[in-house]
């Protein structure tokens, strides 16, 4: 199989330039994997304590009970009770919440009075909202005891409220959150795959086409004992083997970085989608190779054809962040439909035909692009054959 062997030699010659794209892609994939692992391990919730300043005009059991309960979710920062220094502490976020309990608060609270706790907070602070909630919960439960148990002592009140807060409710983290995180990794990985796969296939297939389209070599091949049919079969086989090898290596890297992906149907459908894109990109690479006449032109076209669609189709920037006009332009590229299918697959929880039909439609559009590229390439090849 001389033609097949020649194609492999051409690919090996251009292997260094193709490996640049592969190495960059795998580097990005490893970064995504690391980020995904950190985010999934962060699924175990740990409350962050809020820095607060606590000032009280009295030292009663009720106030001490409130302070003890707040210590579970807050860090008490010692600050001088001076307006300027307190304002500086809020401005520089040394504290985000200042509690001030007025003198006589406990007596008013036990007698059903209207005494309130003063507070100063950082505007729109989430941590301050949590502290508000903790203070309100404690006082509301204490108020229930005061209203329903006449003459209850402060010590018993504080003890009963503390017992209520000591009761824990078991919370079970469902696997859906972890699965969503893993699907996010797959989406990022396979979306970036479009860029690397298109660059590698164009550089490889177009390089082969450039050699075989050389007029002198083409005339020499016509004089060889090999039939035109045998040469075409070997040529197509070489391109197919190269495309499949690239696809297998890049898809295989996904399962090496994230072995659990094999057990998820979402990822397997993305693998199928990437195979469809590989066929489409092979046709596009064949067309580009049919049109190019120099190696420098191939490199220039490769950068334009790979980077352009990736920027407007959702590979580098998610489609939901792109302008509607940009997405309409991107819909004339196969990369757009590939990314759209991946995004749909990531959200799937059921895999019936009705649910998969929008995704299958996107894949059919990709195959339509492949057929169009191949038809145009064959027409160009036929025209050049007449010229030679």
Q: What's the structural blueprint in terms of helices and strands?
A:
Blueprint (H helix, E strand, L loop, with lengths): L1 H12 L1 H27 L8 E7 L4 H10 L3 E3 L6 H9 L5 E5 L3 H6 L7 E4 L4 H23 L5 H12 L9 H38 L2 H8 L5 H30 L7 H27 L3 H19 L10 H7 L3 H13 L6 H35 L1
Parallel strand pairs: 1-2, 1-3
Antiparallel strand pairs: 3-4
Walk me through the structure.
The protein is mainly α. It folds into two domains: 2-40 and 178-387, no CATH class; 50-165, abc type-2 transporter like fold (3-Layer(aba) Sandwich). Helices cover 71% and strands 5% of the residues. It contains 15 helices and four strands. The chain has helices spanning 2-13, 15-41, 61-70, 83-91, 105-110, 126-148, 154-165, 175-212, 215-222, 228-257, 265-291, 295-313, 324-330, 334-346, 353-387, and strands spanning 50-56, 74-76, 97-101, 118-121. Strands 2-1-3-4 form a four-stranded mixed β-sheet. Helix 2 packs antiparallel against helix 8. It is elongated and about 110 Å long.
Characterize this entry briefly:
Helix content is 71%, strand content 5%.
Q: Which characteristics define this entry?
A:
4 strands; elongated; single chain; mainly alpha; 388 residues; 4-stranded mixed beta sheet; 71% helix
